[in-house]
Amino acid sequence: MLPSRLTLAAAALLAPLLFATGSPAKAETERWVIDESHASIGFMVDHIGFARVLGMFLEIGGSFDYDPETMHLAGGQVTIPVDSVFTNHDKRDEHLRDPDFFDSETHPYMVFTATGFEPTGEQQGRLSGTLDLLGRRHPVTLDVTINRIDEYPFSPGLFRARPYVLGASLRGTLRRSDWGMDYGVSDGLVGDEVELILELEARRQ
Length: 205
Known about the structure:
It contains two helices and ten strands. The longest helix is centred in the middle third of the chain and has 8 residues. It has one domain: Lipocalin. Strands 1-3-4-6-7-8-9-10 form an eight-stranded antiparallel β-barrel.
């Protein structure tokens, strides 16, 4: 389970995770909450041109309002505590938390807020939104694939109904220097472009 600080902030990277088409304004959306135990957010960034470092954030949460029948997305957010960054190297993770990168003491969270969705296929689309990081806000676009929306095959406990679950994959890129995170960019030590990888399951409430 995620700490309470995230649970509170997260309910507020992911409301619009789905088909926010021009569906009727009267469409009745349902609340979907990200399952923290089945959600992962990763990133890859170049290291001196030799290889890319693969990292992730160990905490993520959020919710969104969505109607699968009309494919209408009303809104939502994803919230990530930046001090949960993990690259399997303690010294590097400490550096990533300091002011050269995420400055976690001053800016403990990054938040993605969706602003729109453009379908590109039956189960695909382009999700647009804004990312708040290091006190700055810039647009970010993610490619979305809706993998499955169905009743979960497992019950959460005795006498409890099986949840209805939505699963999705998101991909995108951003330039970290747009948010003022420019350490290592000018001398080519650390790449500017960051590849984003997000996999999640969300449970209908």
